[in-house]
Amino acid sequence: MQVPNRPLPPPKQASGNPASGNSPGTPFLAAAWFELSLGIIAIILGAVLGINPREHLPRGWPLAQFDWLWIARSIAIAVPFALLLLALVQLVGRLPLDALNRLEQVTKNQLRSTLGPSSIPQLIILSLVAGVGEELLFRGLIQNAFLSLYSPTTLAGALPAIICASIAFGFAHPISKSYILVTTLIGLLFGFVYWHYKDLLACVLAHSLYDAALLITWKWSEFK
């Protein structure tokens, strides 16, 4: 998950260095495989623990057998939720706080060093893979694992499970202490949406849309 962008002086564009042996696609492939591995780990651990992280995903194959009403409902949930997240993050990013300024600069430096050579189509693909992998792990597996221990029927009862999954989500993004806090708070919102709607696809789509919007905005600002 990324944080909002404030205008900064544009850096020199990153490029592949043949002498180093790294092509521009290498960071993208490494990041994509890492995010994909999170989903694979979730499925494997779920099989061991007896928890299905795909429980609240629509099923059906071939495509004609998919629950298209479920998919439409997921989109109807995900799009407003992603827009709300973007609006909230932008509002918070405008607060005159030094911690937010430092957080944004650290995040931009991290993006430049890891995804600087990536193209916009690659960033979109990475956002989709991140949405799938991270939501399978943190909501589909971890949050469900805690919920399965005591099967709460109210938000107050589900809150410990949502908080535990959100903390794990935050510490999986250890760019800085502030970034961990921000992602933990965002994780709480995803956890609530997942618990309330019992719809992991909505979380995957919202996560992917949110990441894609911020990564594309960041990449576009690098071209200016």
Can you describe this structure?
The protein has 224 residues and is mostly helical. It has one domain. Helix content is 72%, strand content 0%. The two termini are 23 Å apart. Mean pLDDT is 86; it is low at 2-21.
Helix-strand layout with pairing:
Elements: H1 25-49, H2 68-93, H3 98-115, H4 120-150, H5 155-171, H6 177-197, H7 200-223
Helix pairs in contact: 1-4, 2-7, 4-5, 4-7, 5-6, 6-7
Give a quick precis of the structure.
The protein has 224 residues and is an all-alpha fold.
Key descriptive features of the protein:
disordered N terminus, 0% strand, 224 residues, globular, mainly alpha
* Helix content range: over 70%
Percent in strands:
under 5%
Radius of gyration: 18 Å
Task: Compute the number of structural domains.
Answer: 1
| Total number of strands | 0
Figure out the total of helices.
Answer: 7
Stretches where pLDDT falls below 50 for ≥5 residues? 2-21
Q: Could you state the order of secondary-structure elements as H and E?
A: HHHHHHH
* Class derived from helix and strand content: mainly alpha
